Automatic annotation (TrEMBL):
Gene Ontology CC entries for this record: plastid
A Pfam family it matches: D27-like_C
Protein name: Beta-carotene isomerase D27-like C-terminal domain-containing protein
InterPro entries listed in its UniProt record: D27-like, D27-like_C
Occurrences of domain Beta-carotene isomerase D27-like C-terminal (ranges): 163-243
PANTHER family: BETA-CAROTENE ISOMERASE D27, BETA-CAROTENE ISOMERASE D27, CHLOROPLASTIC
Domain of life: Eukaryota
GO BP annotations, alphabetical order: strigolactone biosynthetic process
Species of provenance: Cannabis sativa (Hemp)
GO-annotated molecular function: cis-trans isomerase activity; iron ion binding
């Protein structure tokens, strides 16, 4: 059965500008499976249903020296938090670390360990003294939920975190009747296309990232993955829904899921 999910957002998105992506080159795509186009954008899910195999293009991202340092650092932080080491380097090592965590821990523990890993990878004193110095001195204190703060985070994400999620751009949404550039559109999430697992996306990326950004930086963000085309929207200034109401946690996994890990929805074996 073919399935998709409903994305309950409070924003009306439209593309207005694309920010430069300094760290990623063009991808050389190798098609390894095929996605059957959905018959409708509003198809109800059943617990036994699952997405058809996605058209997964494993790209050559041509990571820069900065990208490789950041990827290896995050990978080592995840391995240190979980206590599960692997000998792989680069993005392969990060994917292996995430997959090992999903195999050895339950969903809530996975989310807890990734938050610990993010704290190791991006210590709060470093954030406050370096890249987000301006934010800590001015934005968080005086304008914690302002238009400027939301747009600042959107631009910052596209410029400095494309090595993790892949090419992305800033888009507009409507907030309190006004248009602002507070949304990051990830064209195809690098992490999701490499893991090919809904559970890893939800438990080891979406929820930990939302919580880390909110608790460490004071900015709410709702990450809305599209499991059909592997894109994602990061909507800054919007609170995510509770886990029990979040469509991502009602979504069955891909038939070609490598992890076959439960994520609040029973996946086919």
């Amino acid at each position: 059965m073919e399935a998709t999910h409903l994305l309950p957002t409070r924003t009306n998105l439209s593309s207005t500008s694309c920010w430069p992506n300094h760290s990623l080159g063009r991808k050389k795509s190798i098609v390894v499976s095929v996605l059957t186009p959905p018959a409708s954008n509003r198809i109800a899910l059943t617990e036994s249903s699952s997405l058809k195999p996605a058209e997964v293009s494993i790209g050559d991202y041509n990571d820069s020296w900065f990208d490789r340092i950041a990827i290896n650092h995050l990978s080592q932080s995840v391995q240190a938090a979980t206590g599960l080491r692997n000998s792989k380097s680069g993005y392969d090592g990060l994917v292996e670390a995430a997959t090992a965590a999903s195999m050895n821990f339950g969903p809530s523990k996975q989310r807890e360990l990734v938050i610990q890993a993010l704290d190791k990878a991006f210590p709060r004193p470093i954030l406050s003294l370096a890249s987000l110095y301006l934010y800590y001195l001015f934005i968080r204190t005086l304008l914690p939920q302002s238009k400027f703060a939301r747009e600042y985070f959107a631009v910052f994400t596209t410029l400095f975190f494309a090595w993790l999620v892949g090419p992305c751009e800033v888009r507009e949404s409507e907030v309190d009747g006004r248009r602002e550039k507070n949304v990051v559109h990830i064209n195809k999430c690098r992490f999701l296309e490499r893991t090919n697992c809904v559970g890893l996306c939800s438990n080891l990326c979406k929820v930990p990232s939302q919580n880390f950004i909110k608790e460490s930086l004071g900015m709410s963000v709702n990450m809305v993955p599209n499991f059909e085309d592997m894109s994602c929207e990061m909507i800054f200034g919007q609170d995510p829904p509770a886990l029990m109401d979040d469509p991502a946690f009602k979504q069955p996994c891909y038939k070609l899921c490598k992890a076959k890990q439960r994520h609040n929805t029973k996946c086919p074996t």
